[in-house]
Amino acid sequence: MNLAHTLLRVARADPRRPALYEGERLLFDYGQLAERVARLAAAMREGGLAPGDRVAVFMRNHPAYLEVFYAAWWAGLAVVPINAKLHVREAQWILDHAQARWAFVTPDVGAGLQAPGRILDVTGPQYPALFSASPAVLAERDAEDLAWLFYTSGTTGKPKGVMLTHRNLMTMGLTYFVDVDAIDCRDAIVYAAPMSHGAGIYAIPHVMAGARHVVPASGSFDPAELFALARTVGRLSLFAAPTIVKRLVDHAEATGSDGEGFKTIVYGGAPMYLADLQRALRVMGQRFVQIYGQGESPMVITSLPRSYLSDTAHPRYLQRLASVGFSQTPVQVRVATAEGEPLPPGEIGEVLVRGDTVMAGYWRDPEATAAALREGWLFTGDMGALDEDGFLTLKDRSKDVLISGGSNIYPREVEEVLLLHPAVAEVAVVGAPDPEWGEVVVAFVVARPGQKPATEELDALCLEHIGRFKRPKRYEIVAALPKNNYGKVLKRELRQRLQEDGPPAGG
Q: Is 396 part of any domain?
């Protein structure tokens, strides 16, 4: 079982089918794309990479993403996609921990990255030179072989490498057709969110269907550009965090558009406010599907299909709208105690999932693997409740993660950076609700006696060590942090204080 076979079968059956676009410009049909992938795979092998080796990808959204992913699989390798928002130091830690030998980069984010093998700038002359190799034969891979090594930060501040196999991703791809949306070759997916995450992983079902793949010419999210592509390319689908959905709806409302040309907008990665979802449905119609997943079970835990979002006559319609839907076809979902014992409907506990999309474990971290995978179940760390119909409503997260604009931010990681400032004695980072970003980062700082750290200095420290999107949007200098009898900071009291104070000026 090799994911790259799904590309080969489409290329053989219909080689002239349009495949990859940059904006409105067609770059390659499926026959051309498969040949380029086979040549790039050969260059990887000739460069000394062997089956099972890892190849890192640290790029802004770029058409080369699709080529590198499928070439790595074609050659029997695994990909390590790295969030382009990360600081190069953070990316370097991931590359080193993954023991990746090659890295493909765009220079705007990858300058300074080092690898034991090669660093390939996909915008430079080295990249096209790789396609002079003779096409490689597709590698044979076992279903349990590593295909995708996705790094998700842990509450300790150190990222963990989620090991996803060919079986995991093949199952995820097939599940899309059943639980999310039916796709055929007339459809197109546009990569507006980072291709290192859920948006890029949804390339898999769209390759399976022989659909079109569109990378915006801007390489980023721009509502006007997406609406223009929807009109010209047509039958456009995308994966979007709620903050992106909100900006799309804002644009539609401002321009009087009803979303013509958009087929499906899959949203997830963060909580969606009920009022925002109702407004989206009102302005753009029944184009939305919600999914809930984690890196450890990519895109596949629950889904809320459009038929349920449109069933306004159901007596529990609003409750269902506020849920994340019910279990997707290949997995079982339960809400359980800390020991894994299932809880009855309505009771809050930890969300557990098992099935063929659940990861093989954490790379080089047996202790974390043993804690997360128990008796076949993945302990997600998310808290929720199931109703009598099997609809899951998330209540809180047992992990300290906060989600801003669809990106996970782990407080301890930010806290450790702020504690590097000589004037900072203690710090606690929490998320404050925000109508646009879902949550924004707020840091409560206790200064050392007689000192007061300047906001500009704290910002500069963060920008030196971590991605810009993790930088606090607000600093509160306080005399002390609330703690329990054991000295643990009571973050719930800090969150309560923020709710009482209201959002910071300027959002």
A: no
